[in-house]
Amino acid sequence: MGETPVPLYYKLYVELKEGLQSGKYKKGDKLPTEKELCQKHGLSRLTVRRAMDELRREGFIERLKGKGTFVTGSKREEQLATLTGFTDEAKKRGCETRSMVLENRLVKVPVDAVEFFKIPAEALVVYLKRVRFLEEEPYAIEEAYLNVGADIRLLNIVQRDMEKESLYDILRNEFEINISYAEEEMELARLKKDEARFLKQEVNDCAILRKRFTYTKSDVCVEFVVSLYRADKSKFKIVRRI
């Protein structure tokens, strides 16, 4: 039985991806146009476009209307087996981060968290909503609800400059709250208008919706976080052992 022929688009995809991973193309570099790639490789525009679409889906490149196609770099990989904050995870990889605070105030506990926080449905919690940036690019929108019933000192968060401070640093080092484990769930979502604007994406682009309940060593739920990650920038890894 003969070997199955490799599709032409896939050959081009592999060649371009190797160039991106080897450093031939650097972050911010402009790639050749579809027409130039067609002429260089003797391929149809449809074939070239399919290869480019695959690279875009994996987060290596992005198209800017009227400007061309540019290298964005690879996706940020996060280990799901380890419980760390956004800032801590980025620092481990030598990445620059910053945050833009959209809201930092008291709100009524969300319905999803009432059972886990074990507080009355009318109780107030701290609501901290931020856009998280990685290497000066918007990476995620994060909404954190902090259970004041778990520790009254959490009320102080509304007075803090959370564009400059790490929430987990405050919880662990200043308040000495012993964060132990978290329960998470993830699913695909579509970006709404405001979400797309903050993340510099298009409306209805895919995103990763991540929900997390964080617990102390004494099994008290101290935090409920709802995050939207850019699908073209994110991937998650978990190691399973028998």
Descriptive report:
This protein has 242 residues and is an alpha+beta fold. Helices cover 27% and strands 34% of the residues. The protein has helices spanning 8-22, 34-41, 45-57, 86-92, 111-117, 167-174, 193-199; strands spanning 61-64, 68-71, 76-79, 97-108, 124-134, 137-146, 179-190, 206-216, 221-230, 234-237. The strands form three sheets. The chain has a six-stranded antiparallel beta sheet with strand order 4-5-6-9-8-7. A two-stranded antiparallel ribbon has the order 1-2. The longest helix has 15 residues, at 8-22. This is Transcriptional regulator. InterPro entries: Bact_HTH_transcr_reg, Chorismate_lyase_/UTRA_dom_sf, Tscrpt_reg_HTH_GntR, UTRA, WH-like_DNA-bd_sf, WH_DNA-bd_sf. One of its GO terms (molecular function) is DNA-binding transcription factor activity.
Count of separate structural domains = 2
**CATH superfamily membership of the largest domain, which one?**
Chorismate lyase-like
CATH C-level label of the largest domain: Alpha Beta
Number of strands: 10
Per the CATH scheme, the topology name of the largest domain is Chorismate lyase
- CATH architecture descriptor text of the largest domain: 3-Layer(aba) Sandwich
Overall spatial form: elongated
Distance between the termini: 38 Å
Content of β-strand: 25-35%
Q: What's the SSE pattern?
A: HHHEEEHEHEEHEHEEE
Largest sheet: 6 strands, antiparallel
Helical content (DSSP H or I, runs of 4+): 25-40%
What is the arithmetic mean of pLDDT? 85
Uncertain runs with pLDDT below 50, 5 residues or more? Answer: none
Strand order, sheet with most strands:
4-5-6-9-8-7
Look at the helices and sheets and give the structural class.
alpha+beta
Please report the number of helical segments.
Answer: 7
Radius of gyration (CA) equals: 22 Å
